[in-house]
Amino acid sequence: MSLRKALDFIQEIGTIMYVGGILSHIVIGVVLGHQDASTAYHVYVYKEISAYYLILPGLALKVACDLILYFALNVKTNWLRVKMLMMAFLTINAFVFLVPMMPELVELAHESLPAGQVSQAFLDLSNTEKLVGMSNVIPLLLEMIMGSFKPKLFAERRC
After folding, report:
1. What is residue 159's predicted lDDT score, i.e. its pLDDT?
2. What pLDDT, on the 0 to 100 scale, is given for residue 1?
3. Cα 43 to Cα 46, 75, 95, 110, 154, distances in angstroms
């Protein structure tokens, strides 16, 4: 098996972990939500754990594969450049905004347990988390389209 095929396979595994983790965050939030402090606490404990065990490792696999393609295999196509730009946006969004929010949301939900209802601080931060998460939709779709279809872009189209 060639290195390129192995990278494509690892990229698929990374996509499954990354997108699957994101989709599980969305589904558990819609199905269970945070109608009370106990539910909110357990939902956000799950979200934090799945972020560390699915989303971030999946993101790392995808970034590593792209970097190997670009630097080691010398793939310098525009689709890969666009894909890497989208991955840079998603990575910055994850590490600057979303990852730091997870422990804080868990802590706010935990602090709400004695009252039985989530605090306004929790609601505000969870709304921010949703907005930041929604900002990932278009870059993620573009990244997946570039990686799946590998279209010729810009000047490459004339070749």
Report:
1. 63
2. 76
3. 5, 41, 20, 11, 44
Of 133, 104, 132, 130, nearest in space to 119 by CA: 104
| 119-147 per-position pLDDT tens digit | 999 999 999 999 999 999 999 999 999 99
Q: Are 86 and 146 in contact (CB under 8 A)?
A: yes
For residue 153 the two structure tokens come to 């872009």
- Residue type for 52, please? Y
**Longest Cα–Cα distance in the chain:** 66
| Two structure tokens written together for 139 | 């870059």
User: What's the pTM value of the predicted model, to 2 decimals?
Assistant: 0.93
- Quickly list DSSP for the chain: --HHHHHHHHHHHHHHHHHHHHHHHHHHHHHTTTSSHHHHHHHHHHHHHHIIIIIHHHHHHHHHHHHIIIIIS----HHHHHHHHHHHHHHHIIIIIIHHHHHHHHHHHHHHTTTTS--HHHHHHHHHHHHHHHTTHHHHHHHHHHHHH----GGGGG-
**How far is Cα 31 from Cα 68, in angstroms, rounded to an integer?**
39
User: What mean pLDDT, rounded, does the chain reach?
Assistant: 96
